[in-house]
Write a structure and sequence with these properties.
heterodimer; A: mainly alpha; about 90% helix; B: alpha/beta; 6-stranded mixed sheet; 12 helices; globular
Chain lengths: ~260, ~300
């Protein structure tokens, strides 16, 4: 009994120490990534390549998902609002839900699974095949040459993807409610325009997507860099990236929402 | 209109020669006899001692092999020279300058004068053969693209792979990948070339090709080469001096002829590939009878 309790306490202690150690390592890692950022901007082509990789290549999944989320949101919103005789407000509902919450959050989750996992795998494989070591030995700093441009590529791409997601969602909502169901087009757009505030809705949504972009990209890069240099190690790191990013996005969303919209 | 300059290669080396930039510097350019020196170097990994009081000298212009069993710290030595690892105590000096305790910028300046061939090449898989060899040139020089092309083709020709310039690393055999990596390692004409297990997993023809290249490139470039290897026969053919490492210490050293003639038990076992000797066949274990439950 005492032995079981002691081993349980040991396990908790071990995991706590491990978690603190990893947090410290991640902080140091991000410090190095940010301190080497000058090259990302001086040789902006490197960052542009990463924007293409993380952003442009993620657009298909973002556009299609945004469209379907907008279609569902429009349909559900119309069915609910119709009961209260305010079906014309469906444009407001779709726009606010997308701009404030679904755009940044769902785009970040999709970004984590598409671009984040790819970043982790790329860095992990570069590490396991000694490509990062080779770069170091050629006097090329991998933080400056690879990791920092990747970070800024993800950081810049994410808000743009979230914006595209929201636009496609609103278009989907318009398609289902105005074009198919027959809600008045003027009411759809005018109510949306009157209700959506640039600062408190759009700008806050953009801030969220920037924070999510930084968090997801940082997690993806650290997991890749920290992965044991084996096939199993890289595959576990990719899984951890998706799971940790999803949890981080949802937790950060709650915290940011509490600060932005409820005045906590 | 853009002018297209084609600077003769010899001008480039003349212009970037430190003695030419600052003639006074030539007074300080009396090089030490040994390009690399290890003095009482100790290194541990996770509390497990890997190197214990290692002293080694690598003379300029020579090809020196480091041999020893797996896990004896041979690759660690190369990483200590490159500054990728830091010793617990002792000193590693390259070209008269300590590798550790210097600034990031100094360390990277030192690495520009080193080349390293990794065990499996470590080529960048998203770049072609040409781009891989051009990588250090583009990163460290402002040479016009036409000159980069000429230099890359020269390096690829030196390793016999000028015709493979358009291939991707995935399309190369193990031996070819290592030759490309060698071309990349010598792209900046380093003073020191390090080879980490260059013969591992290669067929006998490729082993011979890589061995010849190590010797010829070293002599042509006037460089110093350090070869970490298990391949006794090939390395004795091409090296000037051999160190044997076991238990984290240098247990034997000498010229290839001295190694062949050595009566030292470890060297004898290693060179002749005997399964038992100072390096035991059996991993430490309790008595066999006890393990089988037959103890009296």
């Amino acid at each position: 009994m005492i032995d079981t309790l002691a081993s349980g306490i040991r396990l908790v202690g071990h995991r706590t120490v491990n978690a603190v150690w990893r947090l410290g390592a991640a902080t140091r890692f991000m410090g190095l990534v940010l301190s080497r950022s000058a090259m990302s901007f001086r040789r902006f082509q490197l960052t542009l390549d990463e924007i293409h990789f993380a952003g442009v290549l993620s657009m298909i999944i973002i556009i299609v998902s945004g469209l379907f989320v907008g279609l569902v949101l429009g349909l559900q919103g119309y069915e609910t609002l119709k009961r209260y005789g305010s079906a014309e407000a469906v444009g407001t509902l779709v726009a606010l839900a997308l701009v404030r919450e679904l755009g940044p959050v769902v785009a970040a989750l999709l970004f984590a699974s598409r671009a984040g996992s790819a970043m982790t795998a790329e860095i992990g494989i570069m590490k396991s095949t000694e490509q990062l070591s080779a770069m170091e030995m050629m006097a090329v700093d991998p933080f400056a040459r690879v990791l920092s441009p990747m970070f800024w590529g993800g950081f810049i791409s994410m808000p743009l993807l979230a914006a595209i997601f929201s636009v496609m969602g609103i278009f989907g909502g318009y398609l289902i409610t105005v074009v198919i169901i027959g809600v008045d087009s003027g009411a759809f757009w005018s109510q949306m325009q009157a209700s959506v505030d640039f600062r408190s809705d759009i700008l806050n949504g953009v801030i969220k997507s920037i924070v999510f972009g930084a968090a997801v990209t940082a997690i993806a890069l650290f997991e890749g860099y920290d992965a044991p240099p084996t096939a199993e190690g890289v595959s576990r790191a990719v899984t951890r990236t998706v799971v940790t990013s999803a949890l981080a996005v949802l937790a950060l969303d709650f915290v940011l929402t509490a600060f932005m919209f409820t005045g906590v | 209109m853009l002018f297209h300059f084609r600077i003769p290669l010899r001008w480039y080396f003349l212009i970037f020669n430190p003695a030419f930039i600052n003639p006074a510097a030539s007074d300080n350019l009396v090089p030490p006899d040994n390009l690399v020196e290890f003095s009482q170097v100790e290194f541990s990994y996770d509390g497990r001692p890997i190197l214990q009081g290692v002293d080694m000298r690598f003379p300029r212009g020579k090809v020196v092999a480091i041999m020893g069993g797996s896990g004896t710290g041979k690759t660690t030595l190369l990483r200590l020279i490159g500054g990728q690892l830091k010793p617990g105590s002792g000193k590693v000096v390259v070209d008269g300058e300590p590798v550790h305790g210097i600034s990031h910028a100094r360390l990277y300046a030192m690495r520009r004068r080193m080349g390293m061939l990794f065990q499996f090449g470590a080529l960048f898989t998203d770049l072609s053969v040409f781009e891989n060899v051009a990588f250090p040139l583009r990163e460290h020089t402002d040479l016009p693209e036409s000159m980069v092309r000429d230099m890359v083709l020269m390096k690829l020709d030196a390793v016999g792979l000028r015709g493979a310039q358009a291939l991707r690393p995935a399309e190369l055999s193990g031996g070819m990948a290592r030759r490309v990596a060698l071309a990349r390692a010598i792209a900046l004409d380093p003073m020191l070339i390090m080879y980490d297990e260059p013969f591992t997993g290669l067929d006998p023809i490729s082993v011979g090709v890589i061995g010849n290249l190590i010797r010829k490139l070293n002599d042509a470039l006037g460089a110093t080469s350090i070869v970490v290897t298990h391949d006794v026969q090939e390395s004795l053919k091409i090296t000037d001096y051999v160190y044997f490492l076991a238990g984290g210490k240098v247990v034997a050293e000498g010229t290839p002829q001295q190694v062949r003639d050595s009566d030292e038990p470890f060297v004898h076992q290693f060179v002749h590939g005997e399964s038992d000797g100072p390096v035991r066949f059996h991993y430490g274990a309790p008595a066999y009878r006890d393990d089988l439950g037959l103890g009296g």
